[in-house]
Amino acid sequence: MKTNLLKSICLSILFAGLVSCESNEPNVTENSGTVLIQTTVKNPDGASGSSYMQLISDFSKQTVGNANSIQVGYSAGIVVYGSDVFVTPEFGKDGTQELEKYSYTSERTLKKTGSLILPSMSGAYGLVKYNNEKAYIHMYNLGKMLIINPATMVKTGEIDLTSYAFGDNNPDPSYPIIRDGLLYVPLNQNSSSWMPYPEHKQSDVVIIDISTDKVVKLISETKSGLTFPVRPALKEMIFKDENNDIYIACAGGFGLDPRFPETGLLCIPAGKTEFDDSKSWDLSQTPIEGTNYKPGSLSSCKYIGNGKLCAYITISELIGNNPYTSRYMLAVIIDMKNKTIKKIEGIPVSDGFSALIETYNSQVVFCASGDKVSGFFSYDPVSGKVSDSPVITTSGNPTFIHFFQ
What is the pTM of this model? Predict the structure, then answer.
């Protein structure tokens, strides 16, 4: 595979869009409701287009357009804490590096209530809130953690992680998680091809003391060969289970590079600040029940309890010549206890833009963009049944959903 195509595919899978777009959104949404969604309308090449955020009435059978939505940066991230909605910048050299804040009002609308200009080319793909005065943003392109006050949207500090880089001056800090007063920051350690380094087949995590914002230590898992811990825009790929164990999903080579076939899960047990190698699971050789495939990459997941993960698995054989338009993401249920993977029947094979998975009451909601229909599908993990068609049919790729109470 040619290097430029490999880079193109990797960037597509990593960020699902690299092109900025101008936005003149209103300060208040014209619509109202209890469900927040984001959609992305791609141009024919799949590498450009527009993204939109809007509220809809509820999670019921309907078709939704983008007429009354707020235009946001192409493939911009959305993070919700309570009534606060944070919108991260799009990826791209020319994109406006601004973190925006909206508030969900008592009238069930969104009102823009703040913003923060970020450093150029920040790569700020997400936000983790510690309390009302402190939140962390991983600046993927700069190798730093930005500390802000999420209430006032003011920068309060910065943590430089560049000394922990391998091969260059950026360790590529990905989506972190907080446990017991410590911030766990996975490091992707990308090479110039957006792949891990062949001579660094391991997963690194920096642990930061939140009380001092100082690095406690760097830990590494070196035995399994798992690399690329946590995609930078998908916070559910690092999670805690009922025992307070931290699990980290590793994408490896995204099913594209034979040097990095390993993909799966790592574990930092409760009360520990080291990996437990006995709980590492490389699932690349585990057959996917209901198919003739094995996982190319664990590309997205959502922990639903009792050792079960709903996930999207990249199928290498389905990635065509244009990664921006190819459909290669298969919806599966993963049993971490029994080490099994099973295809979820009824959810169409999707492209890399529609990878988000969320829960709603007892259901699991999959964003999916199939060859015939796009929208939000509902899956019952108890019965194993999927809605006959999307509960919400969208104009463009569904890329985010959140349910306000």
Answer: 0.94
